[in-house]
Amino acid sequence: MRRLRLAATAAPHGVLLLLFLPLVAAAGPAAKAPAAPPAPPNVTTAMAKGGCKAFADLIAASPDAASTYQSAVGGGITVFCPNDDAVRAFLPKYKNLTAEGKAELLLFHAVPVYYSRGSLKSNNGVMNTLATDGAAKDYNFTVQNEGDAVTIKTAASGDVARVKSTVVDADPVAIFTVDTVIEPVELFKPAPSPTPAPSPAPAADAPKASKPAHHPAPVVADAPGPAATDSPPADQKKEAKKSAAAGAPSCVRWFAAALAAVAMASTFA
Ligand SMILES: *[C@@H]1O[C@H](CO)[C@@H](O)[C@H](O)[C@H]1NC(C)=O
Ligand SMILES: *[C@@H]1O[C@H](CO)[C@@H](O)[C@H](O)[C@H]1NC(C)=O
Ligand SMILES: *[C@@H]1O[C@H](CO)[C@@H](O)[C@H](O)[C@H]1NC(C)=O
């Protein structure tokens, strides 16, 4: 500090500028180095493209739901969007809800945590949703594996919702389609309890030998994976090089054949 002050008083301004220029120049590239992560996708647009157009339209028509979805994206979100058939079948019930009830139902279809498809399978249990009042722990549902499928249910839904396709699965956003609208007990009366079915033996969960053993994804899925994102491009490059190398000889051969044909044609002309 003292030395700096001394330099400032002693040196002419030009010299000072020269002294600090390298520092400024060095700060530029250094600040740029950590590449800005790509902006998270627009969830409603992604849903609409991925088979949940009707559900995305309902969100867009509910200012409360739209703004909550939008602000939840940055912190991680997993959306279970009912497909268009499911929403169409549910519309009479939906229209019966108050504006607040509609917003709650829409927010009930997303969890404020990013779960990859793999980590969803290993994170069974009760989950809070965007509709949950943090203190009350209400508006929750139960995620459960059923065979190879991941299902979601509440005490109110007659049907369990099955996770179908993956629309987006890139930290911090996952969007999966489900085949039915999930009904929170807070808005719908619990379904009359069905006749107790013979409970399946716990052996149903035994791992199947035919499935390749995947290591379950980490439960806390927000660890950035530069290694994981780096490897596919490298592989692709290798693949591209390989196929280019494979393509070259046949290309040359084709050209040679064409030349020969032209040569032959001219000798016969
Ligand atoms: C997402 O797209 C919709 C429709 O195009 C738009 O209204 C909304 O503002 C977008 N949201 C964000 C966060 O860009
Ligand atoms: C709409 O609400 C009314 C009054 O609660 C109820 O009687 C009716 O069955 C509801 N309709 C549907 C389609 O849920
Ligand atoms: C889930 O929601 C129900 C109904 O609001 C509530 O009674 C229950 O305590 C909640 N469960 C958990 C684990 O938060």
From TrEMBL:
Q: Name one Pfam family in it.
A: Fasciclin
Query: Main site of residence?
Result: membrane
Q: Which domain of life is it from?
A: Eukaryota
Extract the SMART domains matched here: FAS1
Q: What are the alphabetically sorted keywords of the record? A: Cell membrane, Glycoprotein, GPI-anchor, Lipoprotein, Membrane, Signal
Q: Which GO terms describe its biological process?
A: plant-type secondary cell wall biogenesis
Q: Where is the composition biased (Pro residues)?
A: 191-201
Q: What do the Gene Ontology cellular component annotations say?
A: plasma membrane; side of membrane
Query: Where is this protein localized, as stated in its record?
Result: Cell membrane
Q: Where is the composition biased (Low complexity)?
A: 202-229
Q: How does it sit in the membrane?
A: Lipid-anchor; GPI-anchor
Q: Where is this region: Disordered?
A: 189-246
* Ranges for domain FAS1: 39-182
Q: Where is the signal peptide?
A: 1-26
The protein's job, in short, is: May be a cell surface adhesion protein.
Membership in a protein family: Belongs to the fasciclin-like AGP family.
This one is known as FAS1 domain-containing protein
